[in-house]
Amino acid sequence: MLSVENLQAGYGSAQALFGVTLTVGGGEVVTLLGRNGMGKTTTLRAIMGLLPKIAGQVRFDGTDLTTAPPYRIAQAGIGYVPEGRQIFPTLSVEENLIATAANTRKGRWSLQTVYTMFPRLKERRTNPAALLSGGEQQMLAIGRALMTNPRLLILDEATEGLAPLIRAEIWARLAELKAAGEAILVVDKNIDALTKLADRHVMLEKGSVMWTGTSTDLRNDPSVIERYLHL
Ligand code: ATP
Asked: Which residues have any ligand 1 atom within 6 Å of their CB?
């Protein structure tokens, strides 16, 4: 469904990605792993059209999105939960959810279905988003992405900085989305949760893919984690 080929991108004259190739199939959960600064966020931002690409190709469902602007990429069916959540702090929870929903795909996601998945958002629907806890803000960021009815959900640092109970809730919701057939590309540091949820893993080092494999491959070869994730 998503096919990224030989992606090169960076910041001004500083190149950060040196030919990243990865795929996410329909209904598949894939992780992007690597130590800090290895290019995970840059890969996601380049896929979403938030960074100019130096070279390479991004295709989704057969459509070339390499040079498409972010709103077209969202309309094509990719939902994005950015690092740091990036919610609109002065808007209410409900206004945040509605803000992304106009002119997007039709599907099962609406205020009602998002509130069913995250009842806490319903309880706080009139509150300014800035007053939510970190966990609630992450639920809001996920709900806001779901409101675009994506076929692929991309999450950067899915549970970063959240309390253990809230983390567990986010992982449970992502497992529900997977069970419902949603494809997911996720960055996070929690290897245990990721190996339970994901089908495949892509390991980045210095802007290049160094290893890819299934969760079973990763469990069977601890040296991969040692080599690419430990300091
Ligand atoms: P982290 O887990 O710390 O977010 P990451 O794997 O997501 O790490 P990136 O944020 O993609 O890594 O960073 C890749 C490279 O790009 C690093 O060398 C980083 O210093 C550089 N970089 C990231 N953001 C910028 C920026 N806004 N301007 C210049 N260089 C940047």
From this structure: 11, 14, 16, 34, 36-42
